[in-house]
Here is the input.
Amino acid sequence: MPIVSPRFPPMAIPEDNPTSVQGVELGRRLFYDPILSGDGTQSCASCHAQPFAFSDHGQRFSRGIDGSIGTRNAPALVNVGWNLHNFWDGRVETLEEQALEPVVNPIEMNNTWENVVESLRRHPDYPRLFGHAFGSSEITAQRVVQAIAQFERTFVSDDSKYDRFLRGAALLSSAEQRGLELFFTETGDCFHCHDERLFSVGDFRDIGLDSIPPDPGRGDASADPNDVGRFKIPTLRNVELTAPYMHDGRFATLEEVLEHYNSGGVHSRNVDPLIRVGRGLGLTPEQKQDLIAFLKTLTDTSFVRNPQLANPFE
Ligand code: HEC
Ligand code: HEC
Here is the structure.
């Protein structure tokens, strides 16, 4: 079951976890099943909800099963099969490694893998479903995260108005067209980091949010002082649905995001040379609105309503 999109680069899929219809179906159930959490109340979808492009219901920080609150905003899960790194600091590479973490994170699902595996083994359906997906009914933590990763690789969003425009199947309004030009030229200068396909070139940048970043971001994962304040460039596909914005959800609206870039941000040790600290972009209020109109063409309603990505228990 190859996952291809005509406009995206080939997806790198781990050799030991090829995607199959049965694996994706199992992963879908696991993604939506609160059986993974310590008290049976929370699933991955509790913080990654499809109508919000798999971000957390407009919340700045997510609440774990015990009511604890984290310090980073739950990212949207959009075209994550192409992620080169996962988490804002990129501390893991594959989706398989990523899925190991929330289950045992004390401020998230707060469970143990022994416990998860035990409850799945005792379940009336799961042993059979693991058999279909992996050829034997053996249940291990590795197989759980492999199935979830297979499901996440089907989170493909490539049917926004922008994509239909590129295929010649939709027209942009004049505001959207002007916004597109600002985005992809030196005036707005967004495209160097948010490219025209996945809308993230995939590496880590400091965009001048804080002079002394309270969260070291990439610097946490790499222990390199040159990485402090850098965060993974998020995709902008479906960004209209994923407020609030940035790693800590500090901006409630796209207007606030545009105001940040337009002001030029603040100087910090690792601020990216593309950010015009002290000068700003010099956009007029109308140009900011045009850029926002363009960003909204990246909303893909067929993705957020795709029945194959929806809760299988409903
Ligand atoms: C309590 C809320 C919560 C739950 C439950 C949760 N997540 Fe997340 N998720 C987050 C937050 C917050 C982050 C960002 C953390 C960071 O960057 O340090 C995140 C990050 C991710 C990422 C990285 C995306 C990227 O582009 O970097 C993936 C993938 C993901 N979660 C999948 C899952 C899966 C699969 C599950 C279930 C096994 C799950 N999440 C459960 C809140 C949650
Ligand atoms: C130097 C690279 C770079 C440039 C140039 C850049 N961005 Fe970003 N963008 C990022 C990074 C990195 C983040 C996340 C920063 C963080 O959370 O600390 C981000 C975050 C965003 C977000 C929030 C997305 C979310 O899910 O939270 C939006 C919206 C955005 N950028 C739009 C734009 C627009 C519009 C432009 C052009 C005016 C632009 N960016 C220019 C790197 C860049």
